[in-house]
Amino acid sequence: MKLKKILPQLLTLLFIVLVFGFFTMNAQENMGARGLEFGFGFLKTQASFDIQFSLIDYDGSHTYARAYLVGLLNTLLVAFIGIILATLLGAIVGVARLSPNYLIRKTASFYIEFFRNIPLLLQIFFWYFAALRALPMLEDAPMLLNSSFMTIKGLYTPAPIWTNFDVFFTTIIIAMIVIFFFAKYAKKKQEQEGKRLPVLIISLSIFIGLPLLTFLIGGVDLSWSFPVIRQMSASSYTFDGGLKIPPELIALTLALTLYTTTFIAENVRAGIQGIGKGQKEAAASIGLTQSQVLKLVIMPQALRIIIPPTTNQYLNLTKNSSLAAAIAYPDLVLVFAGTAMMQTGRAIEIVGITMATYLTISLGISLLMNWYNKRIAIQEK
Amino acid sequence: MTINHMNFFKPKHQKNRNISLIMGVLFFSIGIIDFYLNNYFNTNITSFLPRIINFFTPLIFGVIGLHLIRIEFSGIKILDSLNKNINTTNFNAALSVSIILLIIFGLPPLLNWLILDANFAGDTKEACTGGGACWVYIKVWFNRFMYGMYPNAEQWRVNVTFIGVLVFMAAGFFVPTKLKNYLSLYYVLILPLISFFLIFYLISGGDTEISFAFIASIIYFFLCFFIPSKKAKLYFFSFVPLLYIFLSLRLGESAYLAIPGLLWVETGAWGGLSLTFMVSFFSLIFCFPLGMMLALGRRSNLPIVKYSSLSFIEFWRGVPLITVLFMSAVMFPMFLPDGTYVDKLIRVVVAITLFEAAYTAEVIRGGLQALPRGQYDAAKSLGMGYWRMHVFVILPQALKLVIPGIANTFLALIKDTPLIFVVGLLELVGMLNLAKTNPKWLGFSMEGYVFAGIIFWIICYSMSKYSQKLELKYKTDR
């Protein structure tokens, strides 16, 4: 009996040790033959390659560690924009799929069936190589909303120029903290005295009002730098000022958003459908208004169904953003596992770091998810 | 009264029904016609209105029209169902009109580009003169898109392999009931072997050399089956490896039997849609046994087995496929003894198999968890051990439950396969990108992507519908 329990475990352990041992031995030998030594010292050396698009200061004189950070931030940027857009669009499409209106319902399901059944990579290629390449040249681009230009080289929009941005930013954080405590206070008051404060309106006015105040008394100022076209030579033009959003970012965000939206929309639909009709009727029969039914009865229950699979989709979106490498958007994979590896030849360290980064993000989010799930789970007594 | 207080110019009595109906249809038609003329004939019949309103005229007219024909219990069947389905409130009417206008705006140009103005005839770039799509491009490159650089004369081999694998896969559904118990073994062990040999001998081809030692051992192995006594059988079976080692040492490396094969086609030439299928299909078949072991391991109550399976699964599920492919391309060779060369395609299939096995494991685990405890208890009470219980009782039921889940995994796998371009293998999307840069055929990227999109869409859509159907069927079964 004892042997039956120990033998399989011993075999597993032996197998793992043998595989790892074999790989490590070979890796040491191979690296030795190439004159490389395992280590992360190379991160501190000068990277000497350029990155097209970066959120922080970067040029060739910075280190590989800095290049890694640039790539990571670019990945997070795409993931962040994609998640926000996909959530908004997903909620709308998901609700639209349940609309009583036949046209709306069919349009929503057509959209979902269309975009979820085409490989994401193909969609990215389509937007980048086919759709965005059909845009006008810089000099022919029409002006949109009196300020922006959509050209083959990307989107040029006005760039905000802040004075005393830190004051503004701090105020926003303070406003958030105030709202947090206010909401807690309001809830307590409702539980004790049964009075309902208009939480939403007051929170919104705090969130908008406080930062606006800084313009009056905090010395914060905002002006816009508009993109202006300039002729460099007979046939080449450029834009001065403004903010340039590269077409790679647009194509990637567009494809990721449209693709992930379909999955989120299905989650939203399943969540709303998962709530029994009796819940709605019971809530209405105790005298709650239509909006109260939605806010206090339907949404808390629907969210419990919607959120776990949706977080999974957020994770997928983040992982899928690594397809950026296919259209040369400088994300973590392209910058680090691509360019940096070609230059240093340190395959094991770099692929290891890249995988560890994604793994950290994934595991972090799933831990957060487990914690959240436990918190909102129905507490049965 | 309270419900209708907004309908200020709506007739309250049924006797005004016809007037209201005629006015409504008139308004609606004016809206549509205005939009149509605006878009396709560049004439604006409502230009006398201020500019801001002018842009929205079709919408406004349409909504007013729909508002007027929103008559409850009108007595006209079509009108009633129309009102019920697209015209319940003003907001809904506005949405419906917007969608109708959007269809009018988008559909004709799309149809023109896809079919009416498109070029189908001819076989050079010059044949494409119209403003529409150039399907000639697809026609000329069709073989390349399907088979990659595989020689034209040898392409039947790819087809035969696919038909063969499908036949062997379908064979499982028609076995006699006596053998049904062994079905999961067939899918998990024998089918992968058969598919491997099919690829090896048909698609890859080339002469093969088999050592005499191996042949002799195999013959000995099969001869052992004819030994009547069960105990002696086992005894003789155990000599197989010994015999093999002894013979190969005795005969040496020179004793090979050369079997002439088909013309050898190197893996670099494989490509196109057939490669998409090959990689996804064979990864699926190979990842199935591994996924099953991992799923069982994860549910095991032996800590080392459990946590090593768990960390394996979580590791592969946490990283993007593209980094896994990078790993197989640049990192994996470092882990092998110097001078070993493993074919690129094999490395990719192994990488995708490992990656996909983690997902398959989770799917199978779901199936295992869905089985009621009574099944385990019943099997144990019959005195079955761990393996016997799983092979004959648990897995056959669990695997049936997870077929839809496996279909979804396969779907995701097909959609992920284009990623193998990062290691330089050109399946359909990769071939498109190659064809796009051909100097003779510049500027047709749109046609290529639309073509690939349609193909992928048909495959994935039909498969997802099928898996949904299966899911419904099994739900009602239980």
Descriptive account of the structure:
The complex is a heterodimer of chains A (381) and B (478). Chain A has 381 residues and is an alpha+beta fold. Chain A has 11 helices and 8 strands. Chain A has a domain at 36-80 and 312-381. The relative contact order of chain A is 0.13. Chain B has 3 domains: 14-116, no CATH class; 143-205 and 267-477, MetI-like (MetI-like fold); 208-259. Chain B contains 19 helices and 2 strands. Chain B has a two-stranded antiparallel sheet. In chain B, helix 7 (183-204) runs antiparallel to helix 11 (272-299) and helix 15 (373-381) runs antiparallel to helix 16. Chains A and B meet through helix 1, helix 3, helix 4, helix 10 and helix 11 of A and helix 4, helix 12, helix 13, helix 17 and helix 18 of B.
Whole-Å distance between the termini of chain A?
40 Å
The largest sheet of chain A, given as strand count, sense and whether it forms a barrel, is: 4 strands, antiparallel
Write the element-wise H/E pattern of chain A from the N-terminal end onward.
HHHHEEEEHHEEEEHHHHH
Oligomer: heterodimer
CATH C-level of the largest domain in chain B: Mainly Alpha
Strand order of the largest sheet of chain B: 1-2
CATH topology tier name of the largest domain in chain B: MetI-like fold
CATH homologous superfamily heading of the largest domain in chain B: MetI-like
Helix run count of chain B = 19
What class, by secondary structure content of chain B? mainly alpha
The gross shape of chain A turns out to be globular
- Please give the CATH architecture of the largest domain in chain B: Orthogonal Bundle
The tally of helices of chain A reads: 11
| Broad structural category of chain A | alpha+beta
β-strand number of chain B: 2
Global outline of chain B: extended
Largest sheet entry of chain B: 2 strands, antiparallel
Task: Tell me briefly what this model is.
Chain A contains 11 helices and 8 strands.
